[in-house]
Amino acid sequence: KQEVTQIPAALSVPEGENLVLNCSFTDSAIYNLQWFRQDPGKGLTSLLLIQSSQREQTSGRLNASLDKSSGRSTLYIAASQPGDSATYLCAVSLLGSGGYNKLIFGAGTRLAVHP
Amino acid sequence: DGGITQSPKYLFRKEGQNVTLSCEQNLNHDAMYWYRQDPGQGLRLIYYSQIVNDFQKGDIAEGYSVSREKKESFPLTVTSAQKNPTAFYLCASSISARQRDTQYFGPGTRLTVL
Prior knowledge:
The complex is a heterodimer.
Chain A: E1 4-7, E2 10-14, E3 19-25, E4 32-38, E5 44-51, E6 56-59, E7 62-67, E8 72-77, E9 86-95, E10 101-105, E11 109-114
Parallel strand pairs in A: 2-11
Antiparallel strand pairs in A: 1-3, 3-8, 4-5, 4-9, 6-7, 7-8, 9-10, 9-11
Chain B: E1 4-7, E2 10-13, E3 19-25, E4 31-37, E5 44-49, E6 56-57, E7 64-66, E8 76-78, E9 87-94, E10 104-105, E11 109-113
Parallel strand pairs in B: 2-11
Antiparallel strand pairs in B: 1-3, 3-8, 4-5, 4-9, 5-6, 7-8, 9-10, 9-11
């Protein structure tokens, strides 16, 4: 059974720091891995999607890496800003038993960036 | 504007009541999904639908029901059989249910049992 774990559960940093969020998964047979952002009481916004054949993806100050063999992904946020404060969720994509795109989510890392 | 809308934003239910959460999308997506989110846990799939008039149970379907009579609508009913319904409910859609198609999420409905 695929399980996704995110460490740390919460993180508080001063503005300007570079930081790393971690995601691990137990079964390497994934199709892709996705990082989402969730603001309090809101839906999910996709940040980066890494296909299983890729090693990393970049978007602005965000960089996500994937090591499928070791079951790990990291989300690197450069020069953090208070606007980055949110919960960051990691999800892996599997083939569900009904032949659909099944996403397995981690519990998230709650990030607070203070001025 | 294209997107996914969910209503209401907040919903309160008394013990023993059925309630229905609305999800509408104007993205012309074939596939739609319902997830439940509890504090400190990841999202869990309740039901999904790959096409109109078809839907399948996800990992935690007990106490829930859905219908898919129109392509743009996928309402979720939380029945009285769901013993712990207080949670944040998220609807999503994708072009199809194939693995290469990204899921897009709505803003969510917070359900509280009084």
